[in-house]
Structures are given as structure tokens and as C-alpha cells.
Amino acid sequence: MNRYCFLLQVRPERLAEYKERHAPVWPEMLRALADSGWTNYSLFARPDGLLVGYVEAEDLDAAQAAMARTEVNARWQAGMAEFFVGLDGRAPDEGFLLLEEVFNLESQLEATRR
């Protein structure tokens, strides 16, 4: 399983509403994410709207493509787009700024056991 971390920017003045929309997420959206290969998916928000996402997937591109084929994702992304800045016309799930992993405890511990 691969680990992915990404950044997005939520409009600070809309952050409270953004959080409300995620408590809870539509059940059909949750099922679609799981069925598309998204696991251990979390979002973290800073008060200024910086959003940090973490997800595990065999292949993030494949998981995103699978989600793109669902009707529920099209509805969700259309409703979420208004909360973000800097997407240049892309849907939020297409605008991830992926971060490079520089350290993982479990990976390094495993390496010391070999």
C-alpha cells in the first residue's frame, strides 16, 4: 500500500461550512471512496484554511480515476469546488499538491530488522 499526502487551500471564511459538510459525508460517497481503493483517508485543517490530506492506495491515479467514473463524485466535487482557491478550473480532487514523503517510522524500523 502506498501513502500519499496532499495540500489544498480552503477559503478561510468558508472553513466552518466546509467542516460541517464533512460531518458526516454522504454514505454513498464513503462507499464509492472505499470501493475505488481509497483507504485510511483523513483530512486535517489549519485555521487559515490550509487543508492537509492523507490517503493510502495501491495507486492514487487509479483510485482517482475510479472515483471520477462515479456519479456521486461528480456531485460531491461540484458542491465542494466553491470552498477552494487556486484550482484553476480543476475539481478539488484533481487539484492535489502531492507532497514527497521524507520519513516513515514503520519503513525505517522494518529496514533495521532485515
TrEMBL record:
GO biological process: rhamnose catabolic process
Molecular function per GO: racemase and epimerase activity, acting on carbohydrates and derivatives
Regions crossing the membrane: none
Highest taxon of source: Bacteria
The protein's name in its UniProt record: L-rhamnose mutarotase
Source organism (scientific name): Kineosporia babensis
